[in-house]
Amino acid sequence: MSPKHVVFKKVSRDKSVAVYMAKRDFVDHCDFVDPVDGVIVIDPAQLKGKKVYVMLSCTFRYGRQDMDVMGVVFRRDLFVVTRQVYPELQDKEKLTHTRVQQKLLHKLGDNAYPFFFEFPDNLPCSVSLQPGPNDVGKKCAVEFEVKAFCGENQDEKIEKQSSVGLTIRKIQFSPENTEVAPFADMTFEFLMSEKPLHVKLTLPKETFYHGEPVKANVEITNSSSRNIKDISLSGELTWANLYTPALTLCNFAYQHTHLDSVPSGTTLKKEYTLYPLLAYNKDRRGIALDGRLKHEDTNLASSSIVKQEVLKEVQGMLISYKVVLKMIASGEVSVEVPFKLMNPKSEPGKDLKYFKRVYLKGVVYGDDDESPTEA
Fold first, then answer.
1. Are residues 21 and 104 in the same domain?
2. Is residue 110 part of a domain?
3. 45 and 17 together in one domain
């Protein structure tokens, strides 16, 4: 029995061009990023002598679409590259890099042309900000798109009826977990107190998977003359908009207990649990989420992992997490430990579970906006 392949298809309104892609998730492995490849199918009768181009773009919208006023657009193209696919400038064999491309070219005939792109190192992953109930238009997001269009040249205005765009995602998976448990160990001294307050916050591991509870061990040794009260533990999601100097903080999980206190001369050892789930944050406007496609659920944004040598070049949004322990001892005292929240790596030989529209035996196609069907 032949293996099943996933293929995504989208056709322009005038049927002049169509895009076929074997996947819409492209993994950033830090050392390299999966290349973007697919096939463009043309209708020469509809083209009427025009050329056909394919474009890969990464766009950062750092303001809502309804904020665009008086010609000021809160949007920037982080990366755009355009290539001509018809008339072809290279042999098809040089642009054919995968077996699925080969199958598509074989089945789709002489009017099918392959394309191939590579990502640069300094692009962020797909991420979006959850809009509020009254927000309209496109949301703040980092988005990637493959667009095919026809025209006399690549710089002329693209006509909607003669173009077709397919949204894709750039994603990262969790690195291998290390045995090191991250922790913060701090000592606080107070006026009029001979001995200090000692606080230790420990996490069992550095990386947690989406849907997994975050357990934090708290150890407070209060040798000071102050009484410790109002102990709280929170998870903070930080996203850095690299076009403004500010960081945006969102509490995604919170645990506050008035019952826990540490009187002078006593010790508290306790495990707290936080739940970093989108289900508990569906009404939180502005919280960062992993980029999503139509018909698909998503989760809180995954942590960003960037190579140190290109960190200063990365544009868009970077995501980080930390657990913050706070308490009152005449004034507020806090300790924090960073951690990563990500998806686990998929097992070799298994398809990613994201964005399957059509299940193919050999090659069968389904429009992007259709519900999944089985061939």
1. yes
2. yes
3. yes
- E strand spans, 194-330: 197-202, 207-209, 214-222, 229-241, 247-257, 267-274, 288-290, 317-329
- Does 229 lie in the same domain as 164? no
d(CA 352, CA 356): 8
The count of C-alpha atoms lying within 13 angstroms of the C-alpha of 246, restricted to the half-sphere facing its C-beta, is: 3
- Per-residue pLDDT, 242: 59
100 lies in which domain range? 8-172
Q: What is the mean pLDDT of residues 97-101?
A: 81
Mean pLDDT across the chain, nearest whole number? 80
Rounded CA gap, 164 and 159, in Å? 10
Q: What is the pLDDT of residue 177?
A: 63
Residues 59 and 161 in one domain: yes
DSSP character for 13? T
Q: Can you give the length of the chain in residues?
A: 375
Half-sphere exposure of 92 (CA within 13 A, CB side): 18
CATH number at residue 255: 2.60.40.640
How many separate domains does the chain show? 2
Which of 160-164, 200-204, 351-355 has the lowest average pLDDT?
Answer: 351-355
Asked whether residue 113 is domain-assigned, the answer is: yes
∠ CA 44-49-53, nearest 5°, is: 80
Model confidence at 47, in pLDDT bands (50, 70, 90)? confident
Answer yes or no: pTM beyond 0.85. no
Peptide bond into 44 cis (omega under 30): no
Note the pLDDT of residue 1.
Answer: 36
